[in-house]
Design brief:
By secondary structure, the chain is α+β, with helices and mostly antiparallel strands. Helices cover 37% and strands 23% of the residues. The chain is built from five helices and five strands. It has helices at residues 24-30, 35-45, 76-84, 103-113, 122-135, and strands at 5-14, 54-62, 67-71, 99-102, 138-141. The strands form two sheets. The protein has a three-stranded antiparallel sheet, with helices on one face. Strands 4-5 form a two-stranded parallel sheet. Strand 2 and strand 3 (67-71) form a beta hairpin. Helix 3 packs antiparallel against helix 4. The N and C termini lie far apart (55 Å). 20% of the residues are buried.
């Protein structure tokens, strides 16, 4: 018999740096979950990822106070910022250009991020990433 799900929690946490402090502690505490157990498991699973990356995590809480979670790759904006060597995106996208990327760089990012995207081919994923890049003020050149 399946466990009864009492809720899901979606967070973005720095890789390998989950602590009981907000946002992790209050989010898990509301569901009555063991915060330190999650922090240790998350930090162990994300220890090999870049330390400055915010990792999306989805936690499923069960009625017996247990949980499961899965992590995905960092958001597309993280990869685009790194490739364009930017600290942050544009405050006025469409009017100011903060950086430039080539199609080859977009395709490389798309292949890395492919499992988390809603696309069948790397070219389609690169097209989606191009839209994200434009919204961040990054120009895509050929």
């Amino acid at each position: 018999m399946a466990k009864k799900i009492i809720g899901t929690i979606k967070l973005q946490i720095l890789a390998g740096k989950a602590t009981p402090a907000p946002p992790v502690g209050p989010a898990l505490g509301q569901k009555g979950l063991n915060i330190m157990e999650f922090c240790k498991a998350f930090n162990a699973q994300t220890s090999g990822m870049p330390a400055d990356a915010r990792i999306p995590v989805v936690i499923t809480a069960y009625a017996d106070k247990t949980f499961t979670f899965f992590v995905t790759k960092p958001p597309a904006s993280y990869y685009l910022q790194k490739a364009a060597a930017l600290a942050k995106g544009s405050t006025a996208p469409g009017r100011t250009i903060n950086g430039r990327l080539t199609q080859a760089q977009l395709l490389e990012i798309a292949k890395e991020k492919m499992q988390d995207m809603n696309a069948y081919t790397p070219e389609a994923a690169a097209s989606m990433l191009a839209g994200t890049a434009r919204s961040m003020g990054i120009e895509v050149i050929d």
